[in-house]
Amino acid sequence: MATGDGAKSVAVEPCSGRVLAADRLAGSVSVVGPGAGTVVGTMTTAAYPDHVQVAHGSPAYVVDKSGSGPVGGDGLTRLRLSPQVPVRHDTAGPRPACWT
Fold it and tell me: Is the model more confident about 94 or about 1?
């Protein structure tokens, strides 16, 4: 599937099954829907997003290797994910935070 330029890192949002792809050359994160596997949204980050991680379903954090942080260090972009209807998960193992 096509995402933004230079996809480098991916993370899965466990409640919805969406996949987040850090698009290093595009300066964005692509959001891929679990059904058709197509890009359903794009979020802008600082330059050169390198790694993406979802924290307990939301938010997502992206490390920007652009020198955009304090004193020219790496930056951190926090992305708030909109709520989605949870998908069914395997009942073995830990449950995502969205399960009640």
Answer: 1
Coil, strand, or helix at residue 52?
A: strand
pTM of the full structure: 0.75
- How many Cβ atoms sit within 10 Å of the Cβ of residue 72? 9
CATH T-level topology, domain 7-79 = Thrombin, subunit H (2.40.10)
Rg of the chain over Cα atoms, rounded to whole angstroms, equals 14
Per-domain boundaries in the chain? 7-79
- For residue 83, whether the previous peptide bond is cis, meaning omega lies within 30 degrees of 0, is no
At 88, list the tokens. 């069914």
CA distance 62 to 47: 11
